[in-house]
Specification:
It is a single chain. By secondary structure, this protein is α+β, with helices and mostly antiparallel strands. It has 2 helices and 7 strands; from the N terminus they run βββαββαββ. A 6-stranded antiparallel beta barrel has the order 1-2-3-6-5-4. A hairpin with a 5-residue loop joins strand 1 and strand 2. The longest helix has 10 residues. It is globular.
């Protein structure tokens, strides 16, 4: 049975999200996926000040789930379509208020077990 890498990043999955400031200071968080929209991954920011600070100065991101790592670039929304989706979906899993929607444009997918880019 072939498992699609997207299954590891679908709504409700725990993900490890890694960022870096422009000066190279790393930061990582465990977040919950809100699923895919317009072929991009959506994550809600409720309590991620350092992450948002890093992404505003350096929009590159890596996210790990299972044996897969995705690399991409983000857009941050404090209102609009993606923000509204975050508010609605986050209400199911957290009582914290959504501050931003993080939309990840996936540049590549890396299989950590095979040590190669697969998509």
């Amino acid at each position: 049975m072939i498992i699609n890498w997207k299954n590891n990043f679908e709504e409700g999955k725990e993900l490890v999200l890694a960022t870096s400031s422009l000066s190279g200071n790393p930061n990582a968080n465990v977040v919950i996926s809100l699923g895919f929209f317009d072929d991009k991954l959506l994550i809600a920011d409720c309590l991620m000040k350092t992450t948002i600070d890093n992404l505003e100065s350096n929009p590159k991101i890596s996210i790990v789930s299972g044996i897969y790592k995705i690399n991409g670039a983000v857009e941050i929304f404090s209102s609009g379509k993606y923000f509204d989706i975050c508010v609605k979906r986050s209400a199911k899993i957290s009582s914290d208020k959504v501050k931003n929607a993080i939309l990840v444009d996936i540049k590549n997918v890396f299989d950590l077990y095979k040590a190669k880019i697969i998509d």
